[in-house]
Amino acid sequence: MWNPFKKNKAIVSPVKGKLIDIGKVKDEAFSSKALGDGFAIEPEASRIVSPIDGVVTAAFPSGHAYGIENDQVELIVHIGIDTVQLNGEGFHSFVRQGENVKKGDLLAEVDFKAIKDKGYDITTVVIISNGLTPELMKAEAVVEEGEDVAILK
To answer: How far is residue 153's CA from residue 145's CA, in Å, rounded to a whole number?
Structure first.
């Protein structure tokens, strides 16, 4: 049965790759859910897209992280672990703070090979920062950019 509410609360994958539980991320701040619940992707492509329709509330100058919110959810897309230290090297941002985005709109392109070559973990994390819990629709599966991967509870 079609449920429009379910579709509105769906979050899509920001990048093609393997969907993993946030508890498996190799960074305590993320895996402990100290910043909020969410999920992670081990990227297999360079494009990072918006997981929801909303407003870009933060676009870090380094290009490694984006805040996006709408009337249902606030989230953070964090590209890689400790990648802020790269000062933007390997990241090309396509949005600015205050812009409206739709699910699937391009946020950034990332040179994951260069970032890995510098010794950084490229795991991309989606954090739900307003207390909601995502229910993963798939686990440990390869997902496509823009594919529904979680429903908010």
So the answer is: 22
Does the residue 16 lie in any domain?
Answer: yes
3-state DSSP percent of the chain in helix, strand and coil, to 5: 15, 40, 45
To the query of whether residue 92 is one of the catalytic residues in this protein, the response is no
Catalytic residue among 19, 20, 78, 80: 78
Reply yes or no on whether the pLDDT at 4 is more than 90: no
Q: List the 17-21 sheet strands across, edge first.
A: 100-101, 54-59, 65-69, 74-79, 124-128, 37-43, 17-21, 142-143
Q: Is the pTM of this model over 0.90?
A: yes
Amino acid at 140: E
Expressed as residue numbers, the domain containing 37 is 9-133
> Domains in the chain: how many in total?
1
Contact 51, 73 (CB under 8 A): no
